[in-house]
């Protein structure tokens, strides 16, 4: 059997017909000359009409409904922590701060924290975060804890 030489980069060639020259239109009477593939007379032969043009009909981008409203740049995006999560993270009670929640991996330190009232709490917590829901304040106070916004 004959020994095969390894393929080298300088042996690579484009496939036949893969590299064809761009057809230059409108250059004399030969192929694609004179009317340059546009046919004879009419709007399309004389100048370029935009592809999206619908002949004067109301264009599609104007017929479709638009997204209403705007994005409020002043909106505050809170990180939510519920009472059941607080009771799981601090089963012995004590002081709850944003730094403590960050240390336990419950929230990130770059956005404000809001405590919501989902779940029950049985231990007294002194919670100091950015915001509270009304039900969360009531439940924390009922369990013997206190709330304060930082």
TrEMBL record:
Record GO biological process: translation
Keyword terms of this UniProt record: Ribonucleoprotein, Ribosomal protein, RNA-binding, rRNA-binding
Membrane-traversing stretches: none
Pfam families from the UniProt entry: Ribosomal_L27A (PF00828)
GO CC annotation, single: cytosolic large ribosomal subunit
Domain Large ribosomal subunit protein uL15/eL18: 80-147
Example of a GO MF term: structural constituent of ribosome
The UniProt record lists the keyword ATP-binding: no
InterPro entries referenced in this protein's UniProt entry, alphabetically: Ribosomal_uL15, Ribosomal_uL15/eL18, Ribosomal_uL15/eL18_sf, Ribosomal_uL15_bac-type, Ribosomal_uL15_CS
Residue numbers spanned by region Disordered: 1-46
Family: Belongs to the universal ribosomal protein uL15 family.
HAMAP family, sorted: Ribosomal_uL15 (MF_01341)
Assembly and interaction partners: Part of the 50S ribosomal subunit.
PANTHER family found in the cross-reference section: 50S RIBOSOMAL PROTEIN L15, LARGE RIBOSOMAL SUBUNIT PROTEIN UL15M
Record function comment: Binds to the 23S rRNA.
This protein's name: Large ribosomal subunit protein uL15
Provenance organism: Mangrovactinospora gilvigrisea
Lineage: Bacteria, Bacillati, Actinomycetota, Actinomycetes, Kitasatosporales
């Amino acid at each position: 059997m004959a020994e095969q030489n390894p393929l080298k980069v300088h042996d690579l060639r484009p496939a036949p017909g893969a590299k064809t020259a761009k057809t230059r239109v409108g250059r004399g009477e030969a192929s694609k000359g004179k009317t340059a593939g546009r046919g004879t007379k009419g709007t399309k032969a004389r100048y370029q009409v935009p592809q999206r043009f619908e002949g004067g009909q109301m264009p599609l981008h104007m017929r479709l409904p638009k997204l209403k409203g705007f994005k409020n740049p002043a909106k505050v995006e809170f990180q939510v922590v519920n009472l059941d999560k607080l009771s799981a993270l601090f089963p012995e009670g004590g002081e709850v701060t944003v730094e403590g929640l960050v240390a336990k991996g419950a929230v990130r330190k770059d956005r404000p924290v809001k405590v919501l009232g989902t779940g029950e709490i049985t231990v007294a917590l002194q919670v100091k975060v950015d915001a509270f829901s009304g039900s969360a304040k009531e439940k924390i106070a009922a369990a013997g804890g206190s709330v304060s916004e930082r």
